TrEMBL record:
Membrane topology per record: Multi-pass membrane protein
Keyword Ion transport (UniProt): no
GO CC, any one term: membrane
Listed name of the protein: Cystine/glutamate transporter
UniProt keyword terms in alphabetical order: Membrane, Transmembrane, Transmembrane helix
Positions of transmembrane segments: 6-27, 62-81, 87-107, 119-139, 145-166
Amino acid sequence: MTFCEHVWAPLVPVMSILVALACVGALNTGIMGHSRMVFAAARKGDLPCMLSTLHPKYKTPVLAIWTVVLYGFVMMFSGGVQRLMQFIGLYSLILGLKVIVALLYLRYTKPDLHRPYKVPLLFPMLQAVVSIALLLLIIYQEPAWMLFGVLIYLLGIPVYLLGVSWRQKPKIVLLFTGHLTSFLQKLFQLVPS
């Protein structure tokens, strides 16, 4: 029996609809928000430039949206929706921990830097401890799958080094990426941003 059935059984259909709407809203926000991050990173030069293209009429980063959606499908089909949610939780904890470490590092190395708001150090330290505890708990519960998730996360490092930071690529690689960019621009009717 669910919580809603215990509290008020006639509300079960309404709650189901509200939960479904909340999931659709979260999915929409995730796809649009993450695709804009991919677009911004590509425009800055941290991702392949083909991801920084826009649709001329709607001004949306169509290729970045499809990249995020396809990545989500690959992750989902590796173990279902439950596994996808576990990976998202793992990645969110890792990213949050990186932000906290960066904040603590900057507070230590540049204490006199002007900040609009200075967070008391107790809060980031407490959040770091909780994040580490949650990460260890997640890894302890399903070590094989979480190791797989961490390996996928770490796979981004060589992809970044080979695809973005390596400036003197062979001519054949530049030719291939140029043709691929041109093909995708024609396929999705995109223009450079």
